[in-house]
Amino acid sequence: MSETKADERQPLIELKDIYKIYKMGDEEVRASNGVSFTIYRGEFVAIVGKSGSGKSTLMNIIGALDVPTSGEYYLGGEDVSDMSDDELAEIRNKMIGFIFQQYNLLPKLNLLENVELPLLYAGVPAQERKERALASLERVGLKEKWKNMPSQLSGGQQQRVSIARALAGDPSLILADEPTGALDSKTSREVL
């Protein structure tokens, strides 16, 4: 068996009996109640459910923004269930691209700088950062606007910058919260 095929068979995400319990006074709220599943590289997976069903909690755990109360979480074969905040930050920076529903673009940075930001945190050299950020903006059709500020863009364009930022680091995992909500149908298909 070739090395590539072996890598494809390794789970990217593996959750085993994940619980997340919040204490609210004397009451316990179970936001995640024994969730288990496996996602392999290359798969597209949607987490759906009614409001209050624990989707955001689960996304925060998968995105290494929060840790489970109990259970095991493996990302790329590495147990991230009990990592420190610094270790989780490193995992997020190296392995995960986030596309937020609210875009989370920094208003005082131009588009290029917004897309470069995670690469800066990752220690990517300046010239390579710029090249990767411009290539990512080109992928979403906004390369020519790289000097613009977020306030000069439509909602759909801001969402595309958010997508470019998530893609620039070439992450193993992209977590997206309604990634095409502000885009027209044609652009949504192109982005996905």
Automatic annotation (TrEMBL):
<dbReference type="GO" id="GO:0005524">
    <property type="term" value="F:ATP binding"/>
</dbReference>
<dbReference type="InterPro" id="IPR027417">
    <property type="entry name" value="P-loop_NTPase"/>
</dbReference>
<dbReference type="GO" id="GO:0005886">
    <property type="term" value="C:plasma membrane"/>
</dbReference>
<dbReference type="GO" id="GO:0022857">
    <property type="term" value="F:transmembrane transporter activity"/>
</dbReference>
<dbReference type="InterPro" id="IPR003439">
    <property type="entry name" value="ABC_transporter-like_ATP-bd"/>
</dbReference>
<dbReference type="Pfam" id="PF00005">
    <property type="entry name" value="ABC_tran"/>
</dbReference>
<protein>
    <submittedName>
        <fullName>ABC transporter ATP-binding protein</fullName>
    </submittedName>
</protein>
<dbReference type="InterPro" id="IPR017911">
    <property type="entry name" value="MacB-like_ATP-bd"/>
</dbReference>
<dbReference type="GO" id="GO:0016887">
    <property type="term" value="F:ATP hydrolysis activity"/>
</dbReference>
<dbReference type="InterPro" id="IPR017871">
    <property type="entry name" value="ABC_transporter-like_CS"/>
</dbReference>
<feature type="domain" description="ABC transporter">
    <location>
        <begin position="13"/>
        <end position="192"/>
    </location>
</feature>
<dbReference type="GO" id="GO:0098796">
    <property type="term" value="C:membrane protein complex"/>
</dbReference>
<dbReference type="InterPro" id="IPR015854">
    <property type="entry name" value="ABC_transpr_LolD-like"/>
</dbReference>
<keyword id="KW-0067">ATP-binding</keyword>
<keyword id="KW-0813">Transport</keyword>
<keyword id="KW-0547">Nucleotide-binding</keyword>
